[in-house]
Each structure stands twice: as structure tokens, then as C-alpha cells.
């Protein structure tokens, strides 16, 4: 073969040498961070359910994790988790869509905007429509609910300002909005709180241009809060629990993940302060043969989470400390990740499965 652009490519550029011959446990060079971070770089983590694994792994590997809204000192670990503390860097609960991230960033910039967020009342208990499950029994009053939402908006902004790296896991393209105000909801109204009204609540399957617009808006807001912030995007490998598109859920899942992957990749190509980490590919690409999914074909098994986090820390670049490459240390880190993965994730989306007919 005469000289071509392929002639000088390394082994990772060819399927045979990078995938077929190495196997999934031998992947090398999947991720290498654009940035060389300080050894004590602090991470803020948000996103869909799978993002919780990153929150835990950052802490388990001894890296600073921003907790801008800690639980009351009297709360046990179990109680704190039940009330949404320590799951993400502030008490936002899961942020499934780019539109929701855009809104949270806007609220962090101006927490007084929380007054416009819809609050639902059911049987004398109140829940805000961005985090309906954050308080298991709901809040006792509208005022208390609004106050706690504003507290989280402040804390979200604080987490961005305190972090060097903002990690966001993109999860869904599907969501619901108010038909007039266009406020997005964490869940379809009526799933956990509120009540569904087809005249007021619009289903939206966000397209590439809409998601890109929301992500660019969110990025601008994050930079305004912290001009030095680095943004690391990833896509959740967890399939949709349900779809409201009318299509088969398998097709809806592939559409959703494909669009999110395209947006994340393009954003990373556009800016030096945005990078992409391939958690989706590690778990869901064809060579894995779905072996990292639990029997429900949706939940990611601990071994898969461990492999994802192994690549995450192998690819991060720190200025003063490098993670050992020896096999024993790799096994230790994998063991920590497996242990963390065994803990139950807070995942509101699973509530949608209650609508499935036997």
C-alpha cells in the first residue's frame, strides 16, 4: 500500500488491532483527557442515573468531589441518600435532558427565578416539578418547597464555582414541558406527583438542533459562573425505561443515545474546555455482546461499571500524581468501583415502568 493518511495511524485506529485482537478487557487509548489537571482537581458531577457511579468512583479514588449541599450532620448515610443528599454535587436529583441542565444553570445564575417553577400539591404535600422525588413524603408547604428549591439553585452555582471539572452524563432526549411556559419537567406530570393534562403538558422528543442549542446555552452559563471550568460530557448506556414516541422502545433508545452521542462529540470537537468520555461505548458497543447488562437488559452490572471507571481514571491526566499502572492497583480500584456499584441508584425514571401492561 502506498502512503495514505492511514499509513501513519497507531494500532488503536484499526478495528483488528484495537478491538478484535485485544478484546474488551484489553482496550487501550479509549480516553485521554485534553487537559492536564492539578493533582487535587475537584469534580462536580450531575446527570442521569448512571452519573451516580462517577460521583462514587471519584470519591473512592481519592479525588476531591464537590458536595455543595451536604446533608444535616445528624443524618445517617442511608437517610441522607433517601433525601437526595450526596448523590450529586447539589440536591438536584437526576438531570435527564439537556433542556433540564440549561434550566438548572439559569436558576443557579439567578435563584430568584425559582419562583416561576411549577410546584405540585397532592393531598396536602408539595413537590417541585424539577425534583418531585427529592423529599420522599413531599414538603409540608408551598413556601418550604420553594425555599428548598432555591437553596439547591444556590448550591448548584456554588458547586460549579468550586469545581475544576464539571461532569455531565447525558441520558434522554424525551421529556415533557408545560405547553405555554415551556418549563421542562423531571418526569411526566402524574407519574409521581401532579396530574397529567394533555392540554397543558406537551411531550417533546428533543432533536439534535434543540439539544445542541440547550447544551450551548448551558455551557455559556457554566462559563459565566466559573470561567476556568472544564466540562466533561458522557452519555449514559442505560436504555430508556419507556417511550412516549409511539415507536418500539428499542428504536427509541437507539435514537436517543445516537443523538446524544452526536451532540456530545460535536461539542467536544468545538471547544478546548469540553471533552468526551466514552462510558456509552464501553458498555453498549457491539463487542461487549451485552454482557455488562443485568438480566433486565437495562441495569449495568458492577463489572461493567468497574471497567468504565478504570478507563476514566486511566485517561485522566493529573499534573503531580499518576495512578499506578500495575495490575494489583488496577484490581484494587476495580474492586472499589464494584462495591460502589452494588449500592442502589436513585432513579426516578424507573417509575415509568409501573405503566407497563403485563
Describe this entry's structure for a reader:
With 358 residues, this protein is an alpha/beta fold. Helix content is 36%, strand content 12%. It contains ten helices and eleven strands. It has a four-stranded parallel β-sheet, with helices on both faces. It has a three-stranded antiparallel β-sheet with strand order 7-6-8, with helices on one face. α4 runs parallel beside α6 (208-225) and α9 (302-315) crosses α10 (327-341). The chain starts with 14 loop residues before the first helix and ends in a 17-residue tail after the last helix. The model is unreliable at 327-343 (pLDDT under 50).
Q: What structural keywords apply?
A:
alpha/beta, four-stranded parallel β-sheet, single chain, 358 residues, three-stranded antiparallel β-sheet, 12% strand
Spell out the blueprint of helices and strands.
Blueprint: H1 15-20, E1 36-37, E2 43-47, H2 51-60, H3 77-82, H4 98-109, E3 119-122, E4 125-128, H5 142-162, E5 165-170, E6 174-178, E7 184-185, E8 201-205, H6 208-225, E9 230-235, H7 249-270, E10 274-276, H8 279-284, H9 302-315, E11 317-318, H10 327-341
Parallel strand pairs: 1-11, 2-5, 5-9, 9-10
Antiparallel strand pairs: 3-4, 6-7, 6-8
Condensed summary:
By secondary structure, this protein is of the alpha/beta class. The protein has helices spanning 15-20, 51-60, 77-82, 98-109, 142-162, 208-225, 249-270, 279-284, 302-315, 327-341; strands at residues 36-37, 43-47, 119-122, 125-128, 165-170, 174-178, 184-185, 201-205, 230-235, 274-276, 317-318. It is 36% helix and 12% strand.
Amino acid at each position: 500500500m502506498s502512503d495514505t493518511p492511514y499509513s501513519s495511524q497507531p494500532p488503536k485506529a484499526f478495528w483488528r488491532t484495537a478491538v478484535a485482537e485485544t478484546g474488551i478487557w484489553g482496550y487501550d487509548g479509549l480516553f485521554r483527557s485534553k487537559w492536564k489537571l492539578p493533582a487535587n482537581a475537584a469534580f462536580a458531577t450531575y446527570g442521569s442515573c448512571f452519573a451516580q457511579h462517577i460521583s462514587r468512583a471519584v470519591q473512592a479514588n481519592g479525588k476531591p468531589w464537590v458536595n455543595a449541599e451536604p446533608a444535616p450532620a445528624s443524618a445517617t448515610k442511608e437517610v441522607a441518600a433517601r433525601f437526595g443528599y450526596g448523590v450529586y454535587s447539589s440536591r438536584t436529583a437526576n438531570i435527564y435532558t439537556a433542556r433540564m441542565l440549561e434550566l438548572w444553570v439559569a436558576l443557579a445564575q439567578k435563584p430568584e427565578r425559582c419562583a416561576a417553577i411549577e410546584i405540585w400539591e397532592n393531598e396536602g404535600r408539595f413537590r417541585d416539578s424539577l425534583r418531585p422525588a427529592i423529599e420522599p413524603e413531599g414538603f409540608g408547604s408551598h413556601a418550604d418547597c420553594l425555599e428548598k428549591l432555591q437553596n439547591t439553585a444556590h448550591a448548584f452555582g456554588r458547586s460549579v464555582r468550586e469545581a475544576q471539572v464539571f461532569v455531565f452524563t447525558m441520558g434522554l432526549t424525551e421529556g415533557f414541558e408545560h405547553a405555554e411556559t415551556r418549563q421542562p419537567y423531571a418526569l411526566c406530570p402524574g407519574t409521581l406527583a401532579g396530574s397529567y393534562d394533555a392540554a397543558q403538558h406537551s411531550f417533546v422528543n428533543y432533536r439534535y438542533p434543540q439539544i445542541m442549542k440547550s447544551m450551548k446555552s448551558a455551557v455559556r452559563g457554566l462559563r459565566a459562573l466559573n470561567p476556568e471550568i472544564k466540562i466533561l460530557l458522557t452519555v449514559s448506556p442505560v436504555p430508556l425505561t419507556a417511550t412516549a414516541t409511539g415507536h418500539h422502545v428499542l428504536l427509541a433508545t437507539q435514537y436517543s443515545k445516537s443523538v446524544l452521542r452526536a451532540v456530545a462529540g460535536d461539542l467536544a470537537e468545538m471547544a478546548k474546555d469540553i471533552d468526551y468520555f466514552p462510558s456509552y461505548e464501553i458498555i453498549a458497543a457491539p463487542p461487549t455482546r451485552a454482557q455488562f447488562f443485568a438480566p433486565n437488559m437495562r441495569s449495568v452490572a458492577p463489572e461493567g461499571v468497574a471497567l468504565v471507571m478504570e478507563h476514566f481514571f486511566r485517561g485522566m491526566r493529573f499534573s503531580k500524581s499518576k495512578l499506578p499502572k500495575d495490575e494489583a492497583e488496577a484490581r484494587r480500584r476495580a474492586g472499589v468501583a464494584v462495591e460502589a456499584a452494588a449500592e442502589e441508584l436513585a432513579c426516578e425514571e424507573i417509575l415509568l415502568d409501573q405503566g407497563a401492561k403485563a
